[in-house]
TrEMBL record:
InterPro entries: 4Fe4S_Fe-S-bd, 4Fe4S_Fe_S_CS, Cyt_c_oxidase_cbb3_FixG, Electron_Trans/Redox, FixG_C, Ig-like_fold
Keyword Iron-sulfur: yes
Name listed for the protein in its UniProt record: Cytochrome c oxidase accessory protein CcoG
Domain of life assignment: Bacteria
Keyword Glycosyltransferase: no
Domain 4Fe-4S ferredoxin-type: 288-317
Coiled-coil intervals, chain numbering: none
PANTHER family: FERREDOXIN-TYPE PROTEIN NAPH (PTHR30176:SF3)
Membrane-spanning parts: 63-81, 115-136, 190-207, 219-240, 373-391
Any Pfam family matching the protein: FixG_C
Keywords: 4Fe-4S, Electron transport, Iron, Iron-sulfur, Membrane, Metal-binding, Transmembrane, Transmembrane helix, Transport
Amino acid sequence: MPLAERTGPPAAAGSAPAPIHAGRAKKFGAAATRAAIPAVNGSLYAARTKIQPQSVRGTFRRIKWIVLAVALGVYYLTPFVRWPRGAGEPSQAVLLDLDKGRFYFFSIELWPQDVTYVMGLLILAALILFLMNAVAGRVWCGYLCPQTVWTDLFLAVERLVEGDRRARLRLDAAPWSMEKIALRTMKHSIWLLVAWWTGGAWVLYFADAPTLVVQLATFQAPAPAYVAILTLTATTYLLAGHMREQVCTYMCPWPRIQAALTDEHALNILYRNDRGEPRVSAKKTAALRAAGQPAGDCVDCFACVTACPAGIDIRDGLQMDCIQCGLCIDACDTVMGRLGRPAGLIGYDTEANCRSRAAGRGPVSRIVRPRTILYATLIAGVGGFMLYSLATRSFTTLSVLHDRNPQFVTLSDGSIRNGFTLRVLNKRPAERRFALAVDGVADARVEVVGGTPEDLPVPSNGTQEFRILIFSPPGRTAQTSDLSFAIADPASGETAHARDYFKAP
């Protein structure tokens, strides 16, 4: 699907640059708009001017506030949620313990050997993102992306301190004064405080949160914790406070990927040209319609443009910068309500619907189609497999390593001895004792150096290696054969198996 360019066509050689949306610039002033600079020497990038979006009220703005509150609440408060796991185990519900190599998520405990679950979660996340894009475009970007959430938070702080759009524009244009310095200092101080707590909350996922908070406050925390907080503070402050829409347009790869994953039946925020054009001021609409001349519902008020956090004009069509946040819908619906006109001039729609209306046909809706069925099937399959694997996974692992040199030893009585190293992994939070059984060599004798095959103790949440010697019967010709090792926990009945070879001449 072609995406509209942000910049206009290159200026002719020797001609003076002319900004796009000249009418908007004339009506609202140069400071109120982002005039795109035409391509110079083949450049495809527009000069960046600060965007000051207008606050709006409406359905989508309320949804964004709810998502912001829930997302930030989960992020900041989750490290303090407790989950009892028994003596000697961490009581933090969500914890990534790098020292022990454990990831705790409520009742689930993952070891480094369980990295396949992490890969499965990444695959699931990608498939869910693909499905969301196929159904409703960049709905992730507009509501759930961390960049969007924190940018909304920083914009809310900016409005609280400096006022809404017009007040901020006046402040930007005003000369430096004590009032301006005080407002800017307060805004950036709150921004830095939010960014600092964002970085601080992140490190709490890697250690016991209450303990680490006390250590940080008393300057007794490990040095990497302070480095991580400072790094995340700087990135949050820069990305959410200063770069904002530039992150979504230039740094994020998703705007370029999503064009290849969408189609004409995906919901996107679109302007209804058939209803809005031609654009006429509210005062002239009644007179033109009474005279039988066309007059669209769009009054060219630019409310959708000033409300857009990316500073684009949605009436120009689907654009790469648009994050599908819905604020332009709320702004337009508010204007339509004041004029007594029906809402929905801008709304979530599909290109197939637009073409159907233009041809005089009825609405077209194909949310369920091969693309969405495929994504949903893959999500259900991968998710179901992961849940089954997680529910049936073993908490005991057995691995066997055969001696390399020598691989076997011929003893004086004619028997053959093979040496092995058994490594037993116990994922339970209690010591367990296993019994060893070996099958593959008839009448073989099994010895455990420093112990007995009937009692192999393994510490809680740990591994233990055992030196195993297997002897073939004396006086009997031995040959290379398969060996089967099995350990069993008599208390729980849990078993683990491994295979290797018994080497012989």
